[in-house]
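Action item from last week, closing it out:
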Amino acid sequence: MNTLTRQFFSRALPSATLLLGSAALAQQTINVGDLNSSYNRNIWYMSIAVIVMAILIFVGVSYALFYTVNKFREDKRSAEPEQFHGNNRLETVLIVVPVIIVTIITILAARTMAIVNPTPKDALHVNATGAKFWWAFEYPESKVQGGTGTVTNGNELVIPAGRQIAITATAKDVIHAFWAPNLGGQRDAIPGSKKTWQIDTDKPGVYQGNCTVLCGPSHANMRFKVVALPKAQYDTFIAAAQAYKAPAPVSTSEKNGYTIFMQGKASAGAAACLSCHRIQGTQAAGAVGPDMSFFGSRNTLGAGIYEGQARINHIKPWIKKCVDLKPGCLMPAYEKLSDQDLGDLQAYLLSLKLPENASYWGKVPVR
């Protein structure tokens, strides 16, 4: 794809581009015309022919309309119009031409579907599961070393740039929909059903994704990030994720946070967090809420509501009563925990980090 075509397409769809201000004050572009995705490129190739035909039809019909109106104006002809019954040649043209147009569009659509729908053999498989109101991303081909289960991350999808990613979408509760516009098309995530399709990008970067089906009070807050890394960096990330074991708490604060996470605190009516959340390499194996294994390496909180420093600032309020920050949030409130206990939980969660060389934030630009 040459530079001129990319520039033309990006300007041809201004209404399809939204600028989002992230918490990190970076401008993020959501663009269905991002030609770094092979899916978007193939849709664009098909669209060119359809747009050209639409323009020709518009020009042709407009010309015929104005020509007829002008030629048969009443002030130019005083005689009674010639009476006739039909015009077989014209009627044939009016039938054959639309049939040809529809046939061409059908062939183009079928060809495009045949290209974008099949899953390549070398695609990276990722299971995307929607729930109120967050996303779980599981890498079924990446088994955890020395244990059971597979690498899983919550609300942040890490992928290699330049490779097809086969997303298999489903949902836990109601119908959701997965869409990262810069990377390809959208699909519904339906309980009890699994749908697989491909996304990809040739350009490393951080991309925005959203749920696109009204699923409840925090539908607009059911966001996710896609971090596309160069192959070498992705390989480093996935190897570290497979070998990851949560570090043992070091400070007194982290140790108290660990105890509350694993055992709860009966005196404050706080249930153990492990009943809903998983931390790789520990006894915490809950699957009700997001996986917390690499929580300290993430850049978002609440499925993308808070990013960067805002994420850090809202961890304690989130634990205390997340429904105040995100309507419809199903996580129980921990209002009776002291501010010290909340801070200790925060300290423990922030200690859950991948090795620095495997961290995926800050290594590629926000797109």
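Closing note: The CA atoms of residues 262 and 272 lie 5 Å apart.
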